[in-house]
Specification:
With about 350 residues, the protein is α/β, with parallel strands linked by helices. The chain is built from nine helices and 18 strands. It is about 30% helix and about 20% strand. It binds flavin-adenine dinucleotide. Flavin-adenine dinucleotide binds near residues 9 and 210.
Length: about 350
């Protein structure tokens, strides 16, 4: 029997898109998924697939990213989203709620179902363990947020304290395999996107990753265990999650004045997020007329990864997409669902052309 035309490792956003596009182009695709379900971290996400409205703003927000790769995401996202809609991805909203960005909010369960429906068989519980030699491969294994050793090496000495706020299977497999094939790493290996989360003994299930996010640093006084202050400067609060990860025990305390409890961050009030932390079992106290919430840094997606060219190629016959590919969001935060979508399509097209 002839082998497949393409192997795809990982059935999250990047892998499902690459496999669906390859099937659309008539290819025989073998999709391996390490976990027990398709969808990866995308399935747990808010489903906001977006880009900055202005190119200059994208560059200013993510100054350390590769401008050539960023430009491709910027220019091709809208058409890629239209393609997803044609495939049947359910749209929950046609705007992101953030004036800086444009895009769609998709239903992650429906998106997974629509893409899986186009692909057919996905081999669940089967990880790619070595690179094939005779067939191109798309690495879409989701970066290394769930690998304590790699997080320790690249991001923080407090890796063991972090909450893994993404799928549990993304342990850097794509990176390790492709480095053995001579690929390079991008800058930004020490960067990640995440959220500060209620500190232990809080109970945090994957279904609570979004609702338990404590994203109101701009309305609080943020201190570490030694009382050192931190002022968050980004709209996404990516900086405060990264700062917290590097503090003793990856902890911070949000001192929230009563006047801030009624403030809104997108669709949630600060008081609502504080109550969610308390209900989950985190230490939440009244001190000197303020509410004090203990948080721990939660890591969702690593932003550094394999260096790729404009065809998503990382090494001979090897393509990397999504969080396996680095150097797009570096220096800030841009939608990783968007880059996984745009480069997932490109990887399938490039791999089948060559
Ligand atoms: C709570 C939450 C909210 C989020 N909200 C947003 C948002 O609104 N907008 C946004 O842009 N991003 C958001 N994200 C981030 C986004 O979901 C991820 O960055 C994105 O899914 C990355 O896509 P990916 O294809 O690289 O990885 P994933 O979607 O995580 O998929 C990787 C897959 O690879 C599999 N895998 C790992 N190793 C192997 C192997 N060796 N062989 C085979 N399979 C393997 C994993 O099991 C996993 O299924 C959110 C994430 C979370 C958790």
């Amino acid at each position: 029997m002839p082998g497949p035309d393409l192997v795809v490792a990982g059935a999250g956003m990047g892998g499902l898109v690459a496999a669906a596009r390859a099937r659309e182009l008539g290819a025989d695709v073998l999709v391996l998924e390490k976990g027990d379900r398709p969808g990866g971290s995308m399935r747990l996400s808010g489903g906001f697939v977006w880009r900055y409205r202005d190119w200059e703003r994208f560059r200013a927000e993510c100054p350390d990213g590769d401008p050539e790769l960023q430009r491709i995401v910027f220019e091709r996202l809208d058409a890629a989203l239209a393609w997803l809609e044609e495939l049947g991805a359910p749209v929950l909203a046609r705007e992101t709620g953030n004036p800086l960005t444009s895009g769609l909010r998709l239903d992650p369960a429906g998106l997974t179902e629509a893409l899986v429906g186009r692909i057919g068989e996905i081999r669940l519980g089967e990880a790619l363990r070595e690179l094939p030699h005779d067939v191109p491969v798309v690495l879409a294994t989701g970066g290394f947020h769930a690998d304590e050793e790699l997080v320790l090496r690249h991001i923080t000495p407090h890796a063991g304290e972090l909450v893994v706020r993404g799928n549990p299977w993304s342990t850097g497999d794509g990176l390790r395999l492709c480095l053995d094939r001579g690929a390079r790493l991008t800058g930004g290996m020490d960067e990640f996107w995440g959220r500060n989360m209620p500190a232990p003994p809080a109970r945090i299930e994957p279904g609570d990753f979004r609702s338990l996010g404590q994203s109101y640093a701009k309305h609080a006084r943020v201190v570490n265990a030694d009382g050192a202050l931190y002022e968050s400067v980004t709209w996404s609060e990516i900086d405060v999650a990264q700062w917290t990860a590097r503090q003793p025990r990856a902890r911070a305390w949000y001192h929230v004045p009563d006047s801030a409890l009624g403030e809104w961050v997108r669709d949630r009030a600060v008081g609502e997020m504080v109550e969610a932390a308390r209900a989950a079992g985190a230490p939440v106290e009244r001190r000197d007329g303020e509410t004090v919430v203990e948080v721990v840094s939660g890591i969702t997606t690593t932003l550094g990864g394999l260096g790729t060219d404009t065809c998503a190629r990382a090494a001979d016959g090897v393509y990397a997409v999504g969080a396996d590919a680095g150097g797009i969001s570096a220096g800030g935060w841009a939608s990783t669902l968007a880059s996984a979508l745009v480069f997932g399509r490109i990887a399938a097209e490039s791999a089948l052309e060559n």
